[in-house]
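Q: Hi! First time asking for a complex rather than a single chain. Here are the components, and I think there are four in total. Is that enough to go on?
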Amino acid sequence: MDDDAQGRPLTAYPRPSVAVDTAVLAVRPTDGQLTVLLIRRESRHLDQSEALPGTFVHDRQRLAEAVARSLDQKVGLPADVVPEQLHVFDDPERDSRGWVMSVAHVVALPWRVVEPILSARPEVVVDRPIDRARGLPFDHDDIVRRAVAWLRERYAERPDPAGLLDEPFTMRQLRELHTAVAGEPPSSSDAFRRRMVDHLVAVKGELLRGTVGKPAQLFRRR
Amino acid sequence: MDDDAQGRPLTAYPRPSVAVDTAVLAVRPTDGQLTVLLIRRESRHLDQSEALPGTFVHDRQRLAEAVARSLDQKVGLPADVVPEQLHVFDDPERDSRGWVMSVAHVVALPWRVVEPILSARPEVVVDRPIDRARGLPFDHDDIVRRAVAWLRERYAERPDPAGLLDEPFTMRQLRELHTAVAGEPPSSSDAFRRRMVDHLVAVKGELLRGTVGKPAQLFRRR
DNA sequence: CAAATAGTGTCTCTTAGACAGTATTTG
DNA sequence: CAAATACTGTCTAAGAGACACTATTTG
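A: Yes, that's all I need. Here is the structure of the assembled complex.
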């Protein structure tokens, strides 16, 4: 910014509260649904009982720190997640409590990380399929929509940019991941294979399928 | 955000000043350079003398309003520009005057709009080719880089999403615009034509070239 | 006519998609 | 062997790029 505060202290200007809200996305293996984590709350002065995890930014704190803190305290996630900025929601009326800007964030996590949290605090943290995460408070519906669009864009290019699969994985697991992210299966299974295989490296050793069929090649990200 | 302010007034939290900074991009017809508008300033307590136009957000003001106000007052641009959010810069040390977050914005404008400003206030507003807009204060180098990447992404898909050309225009003018935006000419002139022509509509009447050559078809955006 | 610019026809290469056919496992 | 799953070969269609060729202007 420029200094229209020239000779004038910064405190002379009214300042908004700044919050962060984060869409934590994950793919539920039981039904292959793309889900978002929501916090269940006592609905005191707010009518909704589920919302994205978020918090206010503390004094001179970085946004990423505030996100990590809110995910740690409210969700119980480890502090090493790397969220990405999505958008600033700045409607001065968006929060009845006052002038609050929210910087929306998104992060996608493997189920291996998400599952323990859901079993540890089932009455606090819930996973909701993204098409059933509607009617959330504030602009949280918007944030979920943007988060999903962000994830889909990233997965259109590369096999697994967010590292949602544990390595090594089969082409089938990768295809099922993409089906979950995109909301529909890729148009053709073999075209999908050919599109992806250049970005992967084959691993010796094969997966002995639990059921029938030819054993599948295992891959790692290139 | 969630309410960790439950029962606690919002004012109990320290709040940052929030600023907006905007990269105004334009293509200079004289040399076909992609340029960014900078404000020349009296360097009082800041060493740099050129910076992106910006301002602090006023009480309960929307970011887009703050951007429009700064572009109006500092640059002299009409208020109907539609900037887009790029990124929030949140390093608490980024401004020596205090805790300031800046929401970076970008907008691309036709030269027809930019030129009158440069001639009206040449000692205040200057246009700088983007590869020579380096060493700017704060995170403005970063903002310019992100702004250019944003513009290039948009022009990779469609002929003229920002409306930089006055309609109707020739394929040559469009190609020169893309050359300026991308920083290099499209690989092949006829492949470029074929890629673009589906997104355009031909106009009757042709352009009589000032110099030699077959008159060119005129197009509008579809 | 020469130079310059606009536009088309056509060839090659690559890629996506469709689809059939082959390969290898379990039961 | 049947069923299921993994993979490959091949055809077609679409698109990008290269390049030559045609078209229409100015001087």
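A: The CA atoms of residues 26 and 118 of chain A lie 12 Å apart. Let me know if you'd like any chain examined more closely.
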